[in-house]
Every structure is written in C-alpha cells, then in structure tokens.
Amino acid sequence: MVAPKTTDLSDLRPYWRTGAVTLAAILAVSMQSLDSHTASVALPTIRGAMSASTDEIAWVLTAYLVCIAISTPPIAWLSRRFGRKKVFLTLIVGFSLSSICVGYSSTLSEMVFFRVLEGLFAGGLAPLCQQVLLDTYPKKLHGFAMGCFSIGILFGVIVGPTLGGFIVEYHDWRWVFLMNVPIAITTFILIWAFVPETEKQRDRPFDFVGFFALTVAIASAQLMLDRGERLDWLASTEIVLEVGLAAAALWIFLFHIMMTKNPFVQPSLFNNRNYAVGLFLTFGFGIMIYGHVGFVPTMLQKHMDIPALTTGLLMVPRGVASMVGSILAGIMLAWVQPRNVLIVGCLLLSYFTWRMTFFTPDTSEAQIMNIIAWQGFTMGIVSVCVATATFTTLTPDQRAEGTSFFNLIRKFGSSVGVSFLVSQLVRNAQTNRTSISENITPYNKSFELSPKPENWNFSDPNGVAAIEKEVLRQAEFLAYLQDFWWLTIVTLAMIPLALLLRTTGQITAK
C-alpha cells in the first residue's frame, strides 16, 4: 500500500512570503496616497483651528507635495548605497513619527515644518513598492504585480476624500494624520519579516550637481503649479521667477547628465521606447486622477444638492470597481499585450467621462453611481496597463531609477491636472456667467414669461441677489461639464501614445 503524499509546509513558505510582501507594498503606497487626499479635505477645518488665512493653510498641502517630489528621485541611489530594505524601513519609521508630530502640532509653523519632514519620508514609498513588487513576481506576472500597486494608489485617491470627510465630521481632524501610525506599524513588521535585503553598491558616487539642479527644477515647478491660480499666473512676479528658475534648472540638469561620468540618472534609461512613452502616459493618467476624483464629489455636493455622506456612499462603488479592474487587468496581462488592453481601457474611460458631460442637476443618484463605477473600473485597467507597459522592457538594474522617475512624473501630472482644471473651471465659470447674464434682463420677454421663483424680482435688491446666485450656480455647473470634456480629450490623446508601445514580439525580434 502506497502511503499518501504529504505536503511539506516549507513548500508553502514562498507563497506566504509573496503574499506578505504584496500586502506590505499595498499598505505602504496606500498610506502615502491616503495622507495626500485626506489632508486636502481637512484643510478648511485645520484653517479654523489654526486661525490661518487661505494662503497660509495652503502650505500644509503645498509643502508636503513639494517635498514628495523632491525626495522621489534620489531613492534609486539611496537604495543601492544602503540597501533597499534598510531604506524602506527608515522611511516608514520617519513617516509615522512625522505624522504623529503633525497630528499634535499646536501652531501652523510647527505643522508646516513636520509636513515637510513627512513629505521627505513619503516620497520614496511608491517607487520602493514598485521595485519590491517587480522583483518579487516573475516577468509574466508583472501585470498582476502592478495591479496590486494600483490598488494601493487608487485606494488612497478614491477613499481618501470620503475618509477625510468622515473623520472631520465625526472625529478630531488630528486623526487624519494619526491614522497613519497603525498602518505604518503593520507595514514595518511585514517589510522587516518578509522583504529581502538587496546588495549594496558603493562604487557609484552621488551626483550632487545633478540632484541639486533637478531639485530646484521640481520645487520651482511644483510651487508655480500650486500657487499659480491664487496669484493669477504670469501676472505675478513670483510665478514668473519660478517659471524661469524651473526652466533654467531643468536645462542644467539635462546638460549635466549628458556630460558627466556618473550622472544622477543614466540618460540611456530614456532611450527605452516603452519607458519614454510610459512616462507620457502616466503624466496623462496623473491629470485624469485629479479630474475624476477631485471634481466629482465637489460638484455633487455643491451643485446637485447631494449630502456629503450620500456623496461618500456614491464613491464607494467606484473604489471597489477600480480594485476589481486592477486585479482583472493584472490577470489578463499574463496572456494579452498591455498595449491592446490599454487602448480598450482608454476608449472605455473616455466614453464614461464623455457621459458625464451630460449630467444635469436632475440626474438621478443611480445614474451617477453607475457611470462613476464604470469609470473606476476602467481607471483600474488603464493604471495597471500603463505601469506594466512602462517597465516591461527595463532590466532589473534599471528598475530603481525607472520607478523613481515614473512616480515623479505621475505626481507632476496630478499637479498639472489640478492647476489646469481649476484654472479652466474659474475661467469658464466667468465666461458662462457673462453669457447667461446677457439673456436675463427685464426686457427679455422669454425670461419674463417663463416660470420662475416668486422672489426673482428686478425691482427688489433681494430678488436681484437671488437671480445672481442662481446664475453663478449654473455658470459653475456648466464649467464642471466643460472640464469633463477636457478630461475626455486627455484620455483619447493617450491612445496614439499607446500605439507607440512595443509588443513582446517586437521586443524579442529586436
């Protein structure tokens, strides 16, 4: 009689380790993403608690975003020099401690200072998560690995505003930052126990000139984008100086890395077609993230009279759908070319974005939930395909620098999206107000004969104010719909870029 075959528990360890590493990466990247989007919702409450002006409180967000952008590029060198695991653990500890300090800040200056530290530690989390996932999974499953990464990114982007609103409404705003601590502790334990250390490479010196030039360019561009709308763009001397400084520093950086022996980033990285095209694609995706996630809740609450709690519930299906889309795309990419799935995903995303241009104040909540859920599903697909196509042709030794600049460009795209869409919203709202006001006069018979509220009376100052309020509301609502047109165009513009991506067959043939 043959004895039954027993299962050696050691055979299961690689699977447990892979699962633990994947969970650690998802938690780390979602922690960074959550912190950005929950804090933006809490800013009005923090402003009141700190007795700060609008410009002063904006630095709580601006300082964090600028420091994330600055601290992302050097992560490649740091992970090579000191070991990826050691750097990862250091960033987790620093991020959690600075989050505690932000949460217990008593003055605005303290809060901004600790937000600077928080941003410096947060910048390296996303690229390190991508590196770990790409090294953990075989190349055939890189699509699934990037699906897991996208779950972390989209979880923070989509759940962050709702969670931030809930905390501000029912708890103390300080928990927006303190909630990072339990997530950080769990992440630290998983990384310490399951993520292997990499070999240290001490033969490559740090390029201080290249780093300084890139830092100045990034910081100047980020400040210009964050403050441009408030300062009326090029009408402000500060914005003009920031534009000039960013352009000059970028030129110095590009010239320097072409000429120096040990550049901050190898120029050959950008000669890789898939990687170069992927940077443009992730830039466009960064623009879309803010447009879809930042604008919709505000529009629903302000112009469609949907309560904040109901708005949050309407966002839940989109979050779930985006995670499903990410997982499904990751599984499909084991057999299907990323380029093909990306084109289909962009077409579907542009269609559901276009559908939003037909929203009216009377659109039902069921219709809204249906459209934005499909939007979330297609965003998950697009996110995974962009990341997978970008890294599919990079060698393992290029991943450190590749992931750093990939995340930098995605963050920069989000900043451009914020600035462009907000400026278009303001400009179009003013244009729409002028256009609507031309037809609302006591001499317009159509307006006089149409049914309207009783308090709309040109002979009464209160009646004129009521009319003006409604004009402003409709003008801004139309401006939101016009921004959705821009997002549709951006999504469609990604399709020609996707056609430039090489397929696996083309890469092998070459």
- N/C terminus separation: 56 Å
Any idea what the CATH superfamily of the largest domain is called?
MFS general substrate transporter like domains
Order of helices and strands: HHHHHHHHHHHHHHHHHHH
What is the mean predicted local confidence, pLDDT?
85
Q: What's the number of helices?
A: 19
CATH class of the largest domain: Mainly Alpha
Overall domain count: 3
Structure classification:
mainly alpha
Strand content: under 5%
Backbone shape? globular
The CATH topology name of the largest domain reads Growth Hormone, Chain: A
Q: What is the name of the CATH architecture of the largest domain?
A: Up-down Bundle
List keywords for this structure.
510 residues; mainly alpha; Growth Hormone, Chain: A; 19 helices; 78% helix; disordered N terminus
Q: Can you walk through the features of this model?
A:
The chain is mainly α and 510 residues long. It folds into 3 domains: 13-203, MFS general substrate transporter like domains (Growth Hormone, Chain: A, Up-down Bundle); 208-263; 268-510, MFS general substrate transporter like domains (Growth Hormone, Chain: A). Helices cover 78% and strands 0% of the residues. The chain is built from 19 helices and no strands. The chain has helices at residues 9-50, 54-71, 75-82, 84-103, 108-122, 125-136, 142-170, 175-178, 180-194, 208-227, 237-259, 273-303, 308-332, 338-356, 365-391, 399-437, 445-449, 461-499, 504-509. α7 packs antiparallel against α13 (308-332) and α12 (273-303) runs antiparallel to α18 (461-499). It starts with 8 loop residues before the first helix and ends with a helix.
